[in-house]
């Protein structure tokens, strides 16, 4: 870096003027929000905190399914091509991608609401997945996680009540749900 470049650098602790923001296209400046706030004490490390939050969120998305033995859920693109299964799902599940994502983030309510506890793991939807992910195994793992959650009583009563009324509980799970609601 030449001496003149060094002289042109924004001074630490001074707000950068709009015209000094980096150019992305002729006449268009890219506004660097976080780095522009250095002169305000409470936001001094806001960019670092934001970056830490983003990295922590990404790691949680990856580590959670790995620890729970459902790593294939990480690879779901959320493209929703599997919705093409339509009436080839014998139990009438229409949003298979919702089950895959619920399994990734361990969202029991979302899984049950979309019929996850009705799935009989026949595998018909797998051929519609653009990545040929093992959907029956993914859903089966989440079903067992959900069963454990029901048994440990951490699921809200209204989630189970609503699922019973809507016929969203398969025969393999009915005893657990009835017991939890008793
Ligand atoms: S594996 Fe489950 S979601 Fe997929 S078609 Fe079979 S019953 Fe439906
Ligand atoms: S087709 Fe496969 S990758 Fe796409 S949303 Fe469905 S499960 Fe995920």
Distinct ligands, ions and cofactors found in the model:
iron/sulfur cluster
Low-confidence stretches: none
Strand order of the largest sheet: 1-2
Number of strands: 2
**Strand count, sense and closure of the main sheet?**
2 strands, antiparallel
Molecular structure report:
The protein is an all-alpha fold and 182 residues long. The chain folds into two domains: 3-43, no CATH class; 70-181, no CATH class. The chain has helices spanning 3-8, 46-67, 96-105, 108-113, 135-151, 157-165, 174-181, and strands spanning 23-25, 28-29. The radius of gyration is 25 Å and the shape is elongated. The relative contact order is 0.10. The site of one iron/sulfur cluster has 16 residues, from helix 5.
Considering the chains and any ligands shown, give keywords for the structure.
182 residues, mainly alpha, two-stranded antiparallel sheet, 7 helices, elongated, binds iron/sulfur cluster
What topology does this entry show?
Layout: H1 3-8, E1 23-25, E2 28-29, H2 46-67, H3 96-105, H4 108-113, H5 135-151, H6 157-165, H7 174-181
Antiparallel strand pairs: 1-2
This protein binds iron/sulfur cluster (2 copies).
One iron/sulfur cluster is lined by residues 76-82, 96-97, 100, 129-131, 133.
